[in-house]
Amino acid sequence: MDYNITEYGAVGDGRTVNTAAIQKTIDLCHENGGGRVVIPTGRFLSGTVILRSNINLFLEAGAELVSSLDPADMIDFMKDFDDDNADTGWEGGCFLLARHEKNIMISGPGRIDGRGREVFYEDESDGGTHETPLKVKGFRPRMSFLEDVENLTVKDVTFYDAAFWTLHMAGCRNVLIDGIRIENNDRGPNNDGIDPDCCQNVIIRGCRIACADDCIVVKTTAPMAEKYGDCHNILISDCILYSHSSALKIGTETWADIHHIVMSDCILENCTRGLGIWSRDGGRIHDIMFHHISGNTLRYSDRVKQDAEVCVWWGKGDAIFVSATKRAGVERIPGVIENISFDHISMTCEGTIMIAGEEYSPVRNVEIRDSAFTWKKQGRLYPDCLDEQPSARDIYKHETPCIYLRSAEDISLDDNVKLRVDESLREHIKKQLIRE
Predict the structure, then answer these.
(1) What stretch(es) of the chain map to CATH 2.160.20.10?
(2) How far apart, in whole angstroms, are the C-alpha atoms of residue 189 and residue 318?
(3) Cis, peptide link before residue 40, omega less than 30° from 0
């Protein structure tokens, strides 16, 4: 059964705040056993929308569901949670919220608008490159927080201009993300695409994601790890990914184990990092496979440093980044990374392939096979440093080889791995391998 929000008082003029009307429609649909809540053609402004079990939130062609940026319209869903990593950004509330529900779908050809353009701004402190992270002002809620949802489907819909994380799933089980589009500002801080956080049995396929922060990032944040444990059994495939950060990433938050993840058959475009694994918080990361991935990575300009709040991109054009090391100012020991494989990777890059642990947290059993990497200048800058943000090591001047190894055991490259350095970078990348 369909429930059209305009029949319950919603007005699609882009100015009227429709929170009550939309919520009334959802609640009625839920109480009657479920069905389809229809957002028709129009621009419908709203505060936090709480999704209920057995609901399909369906956006028709021409429909726009628009997030309010007024704190009074938003539910501060995590105000009592403690987390020592500021990047997680639990404060600020969210637009689409579901907690402890089942059988939820978000679908249709319409668009969900997070209005990031109204919180990001250019302060012209980047030396004129217009590549650096934008500054942030005011209140910025995340676009969604879907916690402990069993049987979640997000299909076909477009998420547009998120002010903070776009699709954040925490402790969800049996998830299908199919054919969605995420179109975010490519210089907007923290506007991640899809974040499976302590989730199990997740399929992400056929998506086009463009954003400034990580496109798809599997993680275990501290509050969710305490409640839901490991993140495992995740398949990511057939996606086209553009980012000023990492395209396919595991971490940085790793409070619980992450394992049995397959990322495959994707195209990466102009990312600062291609394929990355960060261990920082203690969880064990193991049995991860990346295969049949092609594209390019490059180094973007950082902001001209003028104040203590300067924001720089993580990554310097690295095709592969595997890192286990401590956070700055934290004595907590990161976990071990082991049993990782890369095959049929074809990348044009500017930065170093880094596989680097520490004596207290080694990286073990990493295999690269049947792959080709070409180092070629694509951006404005030349390789001159290694970047292990966020960590006590941070960014530091260092000779940049094709491959850098540290506290790494049982690392293998088969005879079908090709490392080529183009003439444009031959004076800057002089060694194939440095092991420390």
Answers:
(1) 1-244
(2) 19
(3) no
